[in-house]
Amino acid sequence: MKAIAWHGKHDVRVDTVDDPGIVNPRDCIIKVTSTAICGSDLHLYDGYIPTMQSGDILGHEFMGEVVEVGAKSTLKKGQRVVVPFTISCGSCYHCTKQQFSACDNGLPADNQDIAQELYGQPMAGLFGYSHMTGGYAGGQAEYVRVPFSDVGPIVIPDGVEDEKVLFLSDILPTGWMAAENADIEPGDTVAVWGCGPVGLFAIQSAFLLGAERVIAIDHFPNRLKLAAKFGAETINFEESAVYEALMVMTGGIGPDAVIDSVGLEAHGFFVDNVLDQIKVSTFTGTDRAHANRQAIIACRKGGRVSMPAVYGGFVDKWPLGAFMEKGLTLKTGQTHVQRYLKPLLTAILEEKIDTTFLISHRLPLEQGPEGYRMFHDEQNEVTKIVLKPGM
Amino acid sequence: MADDAPLAATKNDKPTGLAARAVTINLPVDEVYSRFRDFAAWPSFMENVVRIDVLDERRSHWVVKAPMKGSVEWDARITEEVPGKSLAWESEPGAEVPNRGHVTFRDAGARGTVVVVTIDYDPPGGVIGKVIAKMFQREPAIQARRDLRRFKQLLETGEIATPAMNAKQFEEMGL
């Protein structure tokens, strides 16, 4: 089959590889009909995530048709399913508490060593996202082996097109959980850093969860325009000073909750970001965290910090003092996708959440490498690329 | 003053081959105990164990992969057995790699069962032998941690997680 494989920094290719097959009883195999490139795939593309190996198949946002099932899969051939990016067993302590991304058993035993060393305890497995997260082949391919297919995938009713539901795999639940983690109360003002896909879904979700105002912060005019379409007020950080603007816009109080949906590759010429950039380039630090620092400084006293953004390692000069003195609460984590699939599918079918607005480009799978380059270089115009095998 | 930390966590004069690993398994203690007590099934989740032949109630013959030389074999006997509580074994005198293991099982209520494995062995070649074994990923403490994870996976999910894309890759990768 054809698959998009990572071969190094800024080097992804279309490789021809062996077809997947059933290995464990709970597996299924799906024929991919749509798969997206995620903002977090760009962290791999830029070489920020360790433990990638040449030839690793990328992609963790995908859906398709079930073509083969293991003896203990509950799916049937021919069903259309969206697959969560987290590989979770459904039966360990964390899964029974609905903390699916903290699953004990999704990661192969040998692959758990790195996360155990780095984070203290290993996390769930992820599709197509380095060997630290399991070394599982990803969904930017014609076919994928899906472990624990009786727990993860959600069956999509006939007649609902792919593009409406594809983002259930990651960015929609991630944006939703970001808003949920902001513990929004009626009348709240929520500030969202980063109007990429997760940020834009977080904005929609924040309004659905009762926010009175949402303030969106980015520097890409097109992305801010999308944020405004959903009712957010906007701040372009290249044109306005973010802290000053927020303080005036919130009557000197600061936002009640702040959401960092930027993560470890924050843009912008700010002193701390430049220092981070030097540290990252010289391997003395791993993450650029300007947006996160700014969010903490802006957040009102006693407010909430929600962090859906991906961070991988260490960061300096994190404003721990401000965090403590103001009594902030931080909630974060990889998304517990399986927890949100049913309610969010319902919200999509009832047209409470708009998902298709995001897609700016549709390409055949074979043009995946070009898609990566475009998504990386043209972030104003390219909001989301969907790859379609056989297009 | 002595604290309550396990001996294997000591910073002072720790025996070279001593290690403790704990895992919590989301199943009742009796089930976890009886699955663990089935020595003949160990190779299904222990990567380095080629075979264990159960000789009688207390004795068994172990064939275990070893760095550089293929495998080592020894006879072991059970030295302690309290069903649902604890299990200990020790290699018979004359074993090439003298070793002993002790496992406790504790009912953890809604969380299932806590299994604590303590292993102690005399590495051939002492500290250097242990480093070499680590290089080959055959060091018992590393293996014990991975084996316990696989044991937990097998009990909790009915299978052992693998990134292998298909049966052919699984053959090449092994457990």
From TrEMBL, chain A:
It holds the Pfam family ADH_zinc_N. Its cofactor is Zn(2+). GO terms for molecular function: oxidoreductase activity; zinc ion binding. Gene3D superfamilies: Medium-chain alcohol dehydrogenases, catalytic domain, NAD(P)-binding Rossmann-like Domain. Keywords: Metal-binding, Oxidoreductase, Zinc. Residues 197-265 form the Alcohol dehydrogenase-like C-terminal domain. Residues 25-153 form the Alcohol dehydrogenase-like N-terminal domain. Belongs to the zinc-containing alcohol dehydrogenase family. This is Alcohol dehydrogenase.
UniProtKB/TrEMBL annotation, chain B:
It comes from the Bacteria. Belongs to the ribosome association toxin RatA family. InterPro entries: COQ10_START, ORF3, START-like_dom_sf. Residues 25-146 form the Coenzyme Q-binding protein COQ10 START domain. This is Cyclase. It comes from Sphingomonas endophytica.
